[in-house]
Design a protein that fits this description.
The protein is mainly beta. The protein is built from two helices and 17 strands. The longest helix has 10 residues, at about 30-40. The chain is globular and about 55 Å long.
Length: about 325
């Protein structure tokens, strides 16, 4: 699983899209565990990507007071992720997720505590994830627990927990559906308990509807022998810590990226990815680390901008490859 993304994103990374072809009466099919193991992270086994966002104006508030309009002149980010599995058997899955983000932001004026007009930030997170496969109401049930840490290049900052329970409601070659509940053990979480829903449907014309709430809604289709095109919306987030006057602040930004995604199998378990479209920020806040996301001292409202993302991944553990 991707490492307990702040606020809403942790919920989206749990479900298991593309999970099974059939359910047996007395046992959990091997394909269930294989697909679940591959899809929990919502990322490749090893992934490196770069994101560029075009300039955008924004308004903001500091401690409840309106500030003059400002402009984000530049936003660039490099992400590196690794998802490694230690145990994969009939009943258990044990894995680790490691993540690093380098974020560079340039604003016309400095308004966020601890952030100058132009500054770079380092953020890392680490997680241990344990999943158990069982049977409930004659269907496959999956229970998961995770513990993670995160921080900056200066300190480790938080320890978080995440527990989930999910039930696979339908699993046929054409349609897959699951429903679950996720609880976040983190005092700073905006919503500590949320439902998780996944749905996939394959149409006769080759298009696939892929819903994983609240993470994404996409339609996708294989192109030629080695490509895949996806259209729709994905949730993305940016988090990092800043330090000012002996205080530690956390900055969180949640955005919806709507547009196109193209993936291409480069051979040798390498996959290249290109994404572009419209980026709409739905939440941008800075708050004291000791407080919650709702007790923010700074809040920003950004106008939509255009984003570009390129990435490459290496997937030695992947069993399914792009056709």
């Amino acid at each position: 699983m991707k490492t307990l993304r702040r606020m809403l994103v942790p919920l989206a990374i749990l479900p298991f899209k593309n999970i099974i072809y059939a359910q047996k009466k007395d046992s959990i099919p091997l394909k269930v565990r294989a697909f679940f193991a591959d899809k929990i992270p919502q990322s490749r086994n090893f992934n490196l990507e770069y994101t560029f966002v075009t300039p955008s104006s924004f308004s903001s508030q500091l401690q409840g007071k309106e500030l003059p309009d400002n402009k984000m002149k530049s936003f660039q980010q490099v992400k590196a992720d690794a998802n490694i599995y230690f145990i994969k058997n009939r009943s258990w899955l044990l894995s680790t997720a490691l993540s690093y983000r380098y974020t560079s932001i340039g604003n016309e004026n400095s308004v966020i505590p601890g952030i100058e007009s132009e500054e770079n930030f380092h953020y890392h997170s680490e997680a241990i994830n344990l999943s158990y496969f069982s049977r409930l109401f004659k269907k496959t049930a999956i229970y998961s627990a995770s513990i993670s840490t995160d921080g900056s290049d200066q300190h480790f900052e938080r320890i978080r927990g995440l527990v989930t329970a999910s039930l696979i409601l339908k699993a046929t070659p054409k349609t897959k559906m699951s429903l679950g509940l996720a609880g976040i053990i983190d005092p700073s979480a905006q919503i500590p308990l949320l439902p998780v829903f996944t749905y996939e449907n394959r149409f006769n014309n080759g298009w696939v509807l892929d819903i994983l709430l609240p993470k994404k809604v996409l339609v996708r289709k294989d192109i030629a022998a080695n490509g895949r095109l996806s259209l729709g919306t994905e949730m993305d987030n940016t988090s990092f810590y800043t330090y000012r006057n002996n205080n530690t602040y956390e900055f969180r930004q949640v955005a919806l990226n709507s547009g196109a995604i193209y993936e291409h199998n480069l051979g040798g378990n390498f996959i290249g990815t290109f994404k572009t479209g419209l980026r709409a920020n739905i939440n941008s806040r800075a708050f004291n680390k000791q407080e919650s996301f709702n007790d923010y001292i700074w809040k920003g409202t950004y106008k939509p901008s255009v984003y570009f993302n390129v990435g490459i991944s290496y997937n030695p553990f992947e069993r399914r490859k792009i056709k």
